[in-house]
Amino acid sequence: MRLAAALFGGAIALIAAQLVGTAFMQGMGIPVPGAVAGLILMLVALAIVGGVPNGLGKLSDLLLRHLNLFFVPAGVGLMAHLGLLARDGGPLMIAIVVSTLAGLVVAGVVFVWARKRAGVES
Q1: 61 with 79, same domain?
Q2: Is 49 in the same domain as 90?
Q3: How far apart are CA 33 and CA 47, in angstroms?
Q4: Other C-beta atoms lying within 10 Å of the C-beta of residue 47
Q5: Stretch 12-19: mean pLDDT, rounded?
Q6: Confidence label for 54 from pLDDT (cuts 50, 70 and 90)
Q7: The model scores a pTM over 0.85
Q8: Signal peptide position in this chain (predicted)?
Q9: Are residues 111 and 84 in the same domain?
């Protein structure tokens, strides 16, 4: 019974974070998904609290153990639109590779900048 209550509390925390993030983004007119804003708000709240509450940790562990189930709808959609993938696969792969490399370069530049700003020697 305690596990169910802990999981329920964790689910409420996740849903509340998403709802607050969605309301904030829609209210401000910022084109960022509410789930992303909610995750950022949750991160800030967890940093302030200084850790992950028991219920949220248990729910996170449960979701991570069954993470593969979240890929089933994407796989079904991929199989349903295989013709589109065959037609547009080349440009999609180029876009994926270029955007990944751009993200790595930006992350590396920010990392080096942050180390220099913090005064960390190599």
Answers
A1: no
A2: no
A3: 22
A4: 9
A5: 92
A6: confident
A7: no
A8: none
A9: yes
pLDDT at 122: 63
Check whether residue 102 and residue 81 sit in a common domain. Answer: yes
Evaluate whether 43 touches 88 at the Cβ level (below 8 Å).
no
* Residue that the structure tokens 């590396």 belong to: 108
Whole-number Å distance between alpha carbons of 54 and 90: 46
pLDDT in tens, 75-113: 899 899 999 989 999 999 999 999 999 999 999 999 999
Chain length of the chain:
122
State whether 61 and 22 are in the same domain: yes
Mean pLDDT, rounded, of the chain: 91
Last residue of one domain, picked from the residues 46, 65, 84: 65
Domain residues for the domain of 31 are 1-65
Rounded Cα gap, residues 60 and 29, in angstroms: 30
Task: Output the CA–CA distances (angstroms, integers) from residue 100 to 58, 76, 95, 97, in the order listed.
Answer: 32, 24, 8, 5
What does the pLDDT read at residue 5? 82
Decide if 2 is inside a domain: yes
CB 62 within 8 A of CB 10: no
What CA–CA distance (Å, rounded) separates 18 from 39? 7
